[in-house]
């Protein structure tokens, strides 16, 4: 990739632009607030002048409710070979794009799993995405060239590509991002009218839990409006835990010994489950990063091959956690290495063989 146009030079757009510019890509910066594009340029993220011809990649990093119109407008202007967005919800966006006449071959929906409670170009950093998952949601219609541009962007930002189906992505982020945001807001909201004598005692625990409550409310309203069902499903389960916990605490106030004992068990259970869930958060508690198994597949140099392989993996419910492509010099073929959770490699290999793919044994 030699040239890119970043549309929306806030936290995410400017961070990606800084990483691309640092690796030699000529980056053009556009924002509907020209002052923001100027600020990003002053930070070294590129130039706020429009490109003279078509760029390789247009990266749309505007608020979630504006993404569809910004992608469609960029496609109408024919500014790039490939169009990506970084919006936090992928499923409903796909419907909006389809309804607006999006060209599905040159567009690919993505979502970097890194960010901050701060917004705007001044909060951006070139290393924001390093080591973080960056979700790609190709379909069978996605052009291989566009998928390759997306993989290159992720590599240049030193992130880790994760290929997922858009709806599976939305259910996953409802659990790991959208519900935590709401809970953080709800805990922080308890402080709004709290007595100063309590607030002055705030220690590290509440700081950890409420950091993201300071995030931009307008952006989060957009995100929740685009993913209401999956978030409500997770919250319903949490509400059951909450109700059980209230009952358990009331039980501890009871003089009845049996009730007291059961309540103690119920509380211990929620705390133990919490420890177990917390131990699964990647990179927390110093545990080693996940190790994946590799399935290496022979692909020919034809349009649509990569998208087809990702779709076949998605059809058997396997997420691709990382991807590497080895191009064989002088040949019309190469190997794509699909990294998957250990335990999923065998079933993926079998499913791909059944669908006619040739696999290389490691
Ligand atoms: N903040 C996060 O933690 C995070 C993480 C991953 C993905 N995202 C996604 O990234 C996108 C951008 O989020 P952000 O945090 O960078 O927001 P931000 O508010 O920092 O930046 C958004 C920028 O887009 C500009 N903009 C708005 N409408 C525009 C338009 N039509 N054309 C051009 N520019 C326009 C704004 O002026 C602003 O500079 C959102 O879709 C969000 O869902 C955010
Ligand atoms: O680190 C933070 O501040 C974030 O909340 C980032 C976070 C997340 O939930 O992980 C928030 C929303 C985005 O869609 C992706 C990343």
TrEMBL record:
One of its GO terms (molecular function) is prephenate dehydrogenase (NADP+) activity. Gene3D superfamilies: 6-phosphogluconate dehydrogenase C-terminal like domain, NAD(P)-binding Rossmann-like Domain. It catalyses: prephenate + NAD(+) = 3-(4-hydroxyphenyl)pyruvate + CO2 + NADH. Pathway: Amino-acid biosynthesis; L-tyrosine biosynthesis; (4-hydroxyphenyl)pyruvate from prephenate (NAD(+) route): step 1/1. Residues 2-279 form the Prephenate/arogenate dehydrogenase domain. Residues 294-362 form the ACT domain. One of its GO terms (biological process) is tyrosine biosynthetic process. Its EC number is 1.3.1.12. Keywords: Amino-acid biosynthesis, Aromatic amino acid biosynthesis, NAD, Oxidoreductase, Tyrosine biosynthesis. Pfam families: PDH_C (PF20463), PDH_N (PF02153). PROSITE patterns: ACT, PDH_ADH. InterPro entries: 6-PGluconate_DH-like_C_sf, ACT-like_dom_sf, ACT_dom, NAD(P)-bd_dom_sf, PDH_C, PDH_N, Preph/Arog_dehydrog, Prephen_DH. The keyword Amino-acid biosynthesis applies. Belongs to the prephenate/arogenate dehydrogenase family. This is Prephenate dehydrogenase.
């Amino acid at each position: 990739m030699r040239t890119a146009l970043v549309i929306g030079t806030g936290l995410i757009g400017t961070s990606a632009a800084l990483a691309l510019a640092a690796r030699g890509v000529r980056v053009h910066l556009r924002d509907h607030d020209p002052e923001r594009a100027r600020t990003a340029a002053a930070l070294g993220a590129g130039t706020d002048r429009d490109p003279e011809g078509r760029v390789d990649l247009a990266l749309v990093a505007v608020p979630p409710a504006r993404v569809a119109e910004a992608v469609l407008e960029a496609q109408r202007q024919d500014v790039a070979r490939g169009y990506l967005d970084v919006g936090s919800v992928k499923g409903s966006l796909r419907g909006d794009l389809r309804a607006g006449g999006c060209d599905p071959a040159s567009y690919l929906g993505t979502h970097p799993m890194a960010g901050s409670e701060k917004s705007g170009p001044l909060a951006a950093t070139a290393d924001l995405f390093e080591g973080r998952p960056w979700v790609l949601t190709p379909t069978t219609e996605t052009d291989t060239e566009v998928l390759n541009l997306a993989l290159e962007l992720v590599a240049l930002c030193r992130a880790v590509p994760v290929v997922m189906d858009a709806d599976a992505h939305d259910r996953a982020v409802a659990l790991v991002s959208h519900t935590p945001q709401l809970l953080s807001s709800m805990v922080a909201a308890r402080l709004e009218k709290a007595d100063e004598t309590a607030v002055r005692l705030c220690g590290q625990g509440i700081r950890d839990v409420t950091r993201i409550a300071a995030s931009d409310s307008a952006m989060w309203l957009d995100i929740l409006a685009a993913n209401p069902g999956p978030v409500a499903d997770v919250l319903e389960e949490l509400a059951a835990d909450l109700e059980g916990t209230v009952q358990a605490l009331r039980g501890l106030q009871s003089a009845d010994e049996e009730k007291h004992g059961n309540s103690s068990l119920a509380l211990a259970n929620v705390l133990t489950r919490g420890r177990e869930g917390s131990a699964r958060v990647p990179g927390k508690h110093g545990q080693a990063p996940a190790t994946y198994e590799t399935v290496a597949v022979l692909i020919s140099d034809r349009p649509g091959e990569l998208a087809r392989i990702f779709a076949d993996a998605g059809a058997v419910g396997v997420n691709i956690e990382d991807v590497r492509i080895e191009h064989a010099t002088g040949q019309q073929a190469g190997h794509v290495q699909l990294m998957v959770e250990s335990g999923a490699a065998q079933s993926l290999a079998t499913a791909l063989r059944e669908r006619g793919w040739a696999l290389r044994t490691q």
